[in-house]
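Researcher: Let's do a round of design. I'm pasting the structure tokens now; please hold your answer until I've finished.
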């Protein structure tokens, strides 16, 4: 018999795969709402682990979420156009990708 938490985890993984598979057919607004719901579920579960099971109060979740949001915004605004070109990465930026991919492969 499979434990109940494992069944819930398997259901969540299947739901994520289904949403990912049909994401190009979903309205962008609803996809944004689904992604926000998923992020908030992850934050709520991790906060429940810290507050509920250990009894500790922590503001680290809010801090890490705000730092992550700020960093992703900065990367999108400042680094994205340099990597992809000012027009969003059409044919003029294609020659840059082999050099970028070699750098990323070397880091891993």
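Researcher: That's everything. Go ahead.
Model: Designed sequence:
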């Amino acid at each position: 018999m499979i434990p109940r938490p494992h069944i819930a985890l398997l259901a969540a993984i299947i739901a994520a795969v289904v949403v990912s598979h049909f994401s190009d057919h979903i309205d962008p607004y609803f996809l944004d709402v689904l992604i926000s719901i998923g992020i908030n579920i992850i934050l709520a579960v991790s906060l429940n682990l810290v507050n509920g099971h250990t009894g500790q109060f922590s503001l680290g979740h809010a801090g890490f979420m705000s730092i992550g949001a700020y960093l992703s915004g900065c990367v999108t605004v400042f680094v994205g156009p340099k990597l992809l070109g000012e027009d969003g990465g059409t044919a003029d930026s294609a020659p840059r990708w082999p050099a970028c991919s070699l750098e990323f492969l070397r880091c891993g």
